Amino acid sequence: MNTVIEVSNLVKQYDKSKEPAVRGISFEVGEGEFFAFLGPNGAGKTTSISILTTTLSKTSGDVRIAGYDVDREARQVREHIGIIFQQPSLDRSLTAEENIRFHACLYGMYNYHPTFRGMPAEYRNRVTELAEVVGITDALFRPIKKLSGGMQRKLEIIRSLMHTPKILFLDEPTQGLDAVSRRSLWEYIDNVRHELGTTVFLTTHYIDEAEKVDRVCIVNHGEIAMCGTPDEIKRSCSKENPSLEDAYVEFVLKTGGMAS
Amino acid sequence: MTINSEQLTINSYGGLDDGRAVARRKSRFLREINAVISVLARDIMVGLKSPGLIISSLAMPILMMGLLGGSLSQNMSAGIAFDYGKFILVGQLINMLFMTTVMGLTSLVDDHETDFMQEMMVAPVSRYAIVVGKIFGSSFGAVISMIGTLIVGLFMGYTLSVTQWLLIFALSPLICLSAGAMAMLIFGVIKNNKISNMAAMLITMPQMFLSGAIIPINNSSGILLVLNRIMPMTYCLDLVRSVVYRGTAEYDAIVLFNPAVTCAAIVGLTVVFLSVGTWLFARSEKNR
Predict the structure, then answer these.
(1) pTM for this model (two decimals)
(2) For residue B241, which of B110, B90, B65 has the smallest C-alpha distance?
(3) Which of A69, A129, B63, B103 is the most buried (most CB within 10 A)?
(4) Range of the domain at A251
């Protein structure tokens, strides 16, 4: 398996902070792997994902994404990644389709046209079909502000996959979603991952969502405290037949972190 | 919800590969141009959906040209050896382009506050493409204000020839770029909406008074002279006035510099401000 994410001794200290948010973490993620970062609030998950996606500078260490250095080859890194941010990053004044069109044109996939009809047939067909797949056809031409949180998240997923990223970063993608929306979103991501072989890097507050990942790293106080398959993590728990959540909560309480 | 493999191949994989192939076929330069167009088109689209922006862009000329310009014209023109009405019409046209572009560029801070900036910052395009796109997108309101100023001027009896209008329109993208580049020095580092609105006033008001938009600056000296010489609006105004007053007896009394010097100053200041402003912007987004 080729390595698509290589992180070595990554350190991040924010400008006005006395303590580093990330303290020399190292890990690798293989191509097609489903990888999760778990940890309490303030553990350094979002900081790490921000550095990996080139939106935040690091203090020291080496990070290579899809073989490219995040500092020296940021543009190439950006071409190979898709990201769903913790906070929705849609333009609420535009419609769902206008948000997708903006993304596709910004990534150089199509020349910009001010109307949907003026865009190439390939684009129109794809957007229509993808909207059908995720069930937002009726909402495609409605302003974002009139869409539910679940629909907005689905739209962000469509958008993040438009340019065929090798690696999809999901920073707490189901935060604020109801159970039905969460389930349908995960079904869609699972299908995309299995059919396309996309590497998925997940951070989440819902530990049950990490049950099906290939590997989990538990981050605490900016350090990787434990790494392994969900079964390996569960074996560290003193409970009988523990869930991943049981193992996680026990670990966090034992190490003095605040469970999220 | 399920996806069959055929659907996925068509929808996500085949199509996406096609999309990436399209992106790769284009030269990097064309991709940057497409990114600039996408960013500016989005701002224009948002502008068209905001009646408030259009109304305020049209109201500004009534205030700046109709009330301020009208009052100055009635009370100051007596002691001036040239047609003050025409002087202030040109001054307010450029002032409107500057002021509305700078105010429109506060949307850069809005995008940061609403997290939409993240979507642009992870795109594989240069930061210059984002900034230039935002500046030209902001000039949408500026062009509305310029047209409003021409209409208000018409009601006040101050007119320009069609050729002069067209030349000013042709120069307006350069003027807006110059205004936006200078504003980027400040907006590049501001992350708060309230501060950006105040900063927009701090950038535009001194220029309106010091660069010769409403008051002739032929006799400026000392610190005021230094300030008006480093303000891009001084040169933009002078370039437009050199076009409007070309071949007239008033040319020497109104135009300060040789147009070649003016062009060089505009280009030089714009390049420097845009480079530094974009660097500050990219740095402040990434370095925290």
Answers:
(1) 0.88
(2) B90
(3) B103
(4) 225-260
